[in-house]
Amino acid sequence: MTTSSTDRKTRPIKVGNLTIGGGGITVQSMAATRTQDLEATLRQIEILESAGADLIRIAVDSKADVVALEKLCKATKVPISVDLQENYRLADAVGPFVQKVRYNPGHLHHHEKDKTAREKAHWIAAVAKKHGMAIRIGCNAGSLAPEYSERFPDDDVTALVEQAKDHCAYMDEVGFTDYLVSIKDSDPRLVIEANERFAAARPDVPLHLGVTEAGMPPDGIIKTRIAFEQLISQGIGDTIRVSLTVPFENKGQEIEVGRQILSDISKGRFRSVPKGFFDGLNIIACPSCSRVENEKFIELAEQVKEATAYAAEHDVTIAIMGCRVNGPGETDDADLGLWCGPTTVNLKKGTETLGSYPYSEVLPALLSELERIIAS
Q1: 3 has pLDDT over 70
Q2: pTM for the whole thing?
Q3: In this structure, which topology does domain 282-375 adopt according to CATH?
Q4: What gap in Å lies between CA 65 and CA 67, rounded to an integer?
């Protein structure tokens, strides 16, 4: 089911039996469990399908994940998108089972370093065309390709927009048109500016909107609402994902919140941004996905929120990330960062790694560092 957008009409693309672009807005989410855990991931699919998801995304990072994916795709009629993570070469293996793949231009350099990003993008386009898949070019501020970080070291917005434009050009060069773009960050202000600039440069390209690592409700909902209200009211946005850090059984809340925001916008019910919302303590937390290697991550995020409440008036950003793929980069810009592995949590101060701690011991270490920051 789609919700109407405003006057901006992007090129419609097909994702299985779903159309994205051309005037409607679809609502999607991502399974938050490990892909190889069939029972848990099937439950996620059931929850999201029951909540009314138009599209469900699943992460694939290994051949074992592909084997699991084949079984998972048989459990739903909802179109499935695969997040290729760092291993873009798996696109051909997942092609027979899914309707869409998402690759991150910032991760292409990890493999086959002798090939250019253009060559790799052309290969993905050829594979997508062979299997009848659509493509999402997924750009994140926390994982820019090195060349764009070097070209625009102090301007994430320009770096993201230029990276997205270049990868659109790679698709165009080989005549592949079933693609869309996402440009995300944990700060809705950056999301707004970057998507406005990209939409002005490429009004034909459908856009997937989201505030990545928005965090826990209600803050995560507020951040997402800010971005969606300001973009969708301009006709910018063709599909959305609300990224919330919630228990696995509550994952359908992402769909419910997304549809509520779209309904409010369509009826002109806008909510003002609270004065000083971006001032004071800012907790960034990823929404969890199949990359998370320990479910204690969600509990830890809640503990951090509760334990740091006393510092609400201090301008400090704490980032809590659930995996090794996005964790290191996404925490670099935070004053304090936690990125979680299977048994330990890495504590960072900016780009500096301070140590690795068991889940049961990391919170006191984080609070000690927070006290030092406040004192200074």
Answers
A1: no
A2: 0.85
A3: Sulfite Reductase Hemoprotein; domain 1 (3.30.413)
A4: 5
